[in-house]
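User: Need the bound-state model for inosinic acid:
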Amino acid sequence: MPNTILIGSQWGDEGKGKIIDVLTAQADMIVRYQGGSNAGHTVIAEGEKRVLRLVPSGILHEGKVCVIGNGVVMNPLDLIDEIEMLRSTGIECQGRLYISTRTQMVMLYHRALDKADEAARPVGKKIGTTGRGIGPAYAAKVSRTGLRCGDMLIPEFPELVREQVLETNAKLAQLNAEPLDADEMVKTYIEAAEKLRPYIIDTIPLIHKADRAGQSILLEGAQGTMLDIDFGTYPFVTSSNPTSGGACIGSGLSPRRIDRVIGVIKAYTTRVGEGPFPTEDFGEVGKTLAERGHEFGAVTGRPRRCGWFDAVVARYAQMVNGVDFWTMTKLDVMDTLPEIKICVAYELDGKRIEDMPASAAELARCKPIYETMPGWLEETSNVTSMDQLPLKAKAYVERLVELSGGRLGILSVGPARESTIRVGI
Ligand code: IMP
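Assistant: Bound-state model below.
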């Protein structure tokens, strides 16, 4: 398999976990390049469901090497839990999982700051974060006060943690939140460092050695294009770059070594947290999609907002990421809808627009312009080739791809590995 970047094209939760799992079979190394334990990649294999937040889902395939890249913000305590959860199911990470010395850490004090900051924001200014400390950890990175995984290996580590706890306590006091116990925090992280020590290495030579040896590398993104700190619906975004450009920054693999970009896109749209969402449906359709699609956050359990497919979003994702192939997921969720709408453009202040506005305030004023197609009212979850799809379902998929640009690579009609139709890749 060529070196591949896999990205989410909407507001996250497109079903990347399953697709990464499917593509991993052909990859040698899987690298996670951004985000942290705000992500939840759900994989169902041989009837067992697992949610992975930090460890690349490639770990579920024997012999694959997994890397947590420098662009990730890694919570040591979450990672230890995940390694132990995997161990309890017979999967050993040591010797197959590597964490970059350059990876920034999300600490308990970032989590406390995240929660205090959200609580202090007035209604209308809340982001609806996952509360996992992601924003404060990336803020620490760019303000050059963050701790990196490599710091866990040096003797000064306990003092570095203490300094940061004391600094954070001053910020928490301003937000009227409880201070944290520095001694307890230092003890917690000394223990964590001992456990994670064997996994932390300079991953740049590791990745490049694999590339030079002709191995195939899969770069896995979390969240989605519309949550990108630069390209998303700012400020209602996450604090990293889930888009394909972020894959090189977050892994150390050069852009010249990337062969293709695969965009994962759901056959309808969902969003968790605050922020504009033009095709959101507050009626029966939204309810049906939420129920049939099990649209609840894999990490927070929050219900996801649901609505029709938005081709303006898809076209934008195509431009920003350079999607070569689409992987369309969850078509089967729409099996019971008698009529289906697709948003093809927006109306903004009385004018038709085809491109994504940069401002969230403008996007909030956009009204979707819909095209309507008949539903297929047949089950698709047992279909194994494009030819077996009901004609109306096939027409819907083809229209989405036409409106979005690019080509169809994979169609997914159910959560299991087996419910996957390979088309172009
Ligand atoms: P944060 O990443 O926790 O700071 O949250 C910022 C925004 O991104 C919120 O709207 C979250 O709901 C959203 N978000 C973060 N991670 C995910 C994800 O994995 N799926 C969907 N939305 C997410």
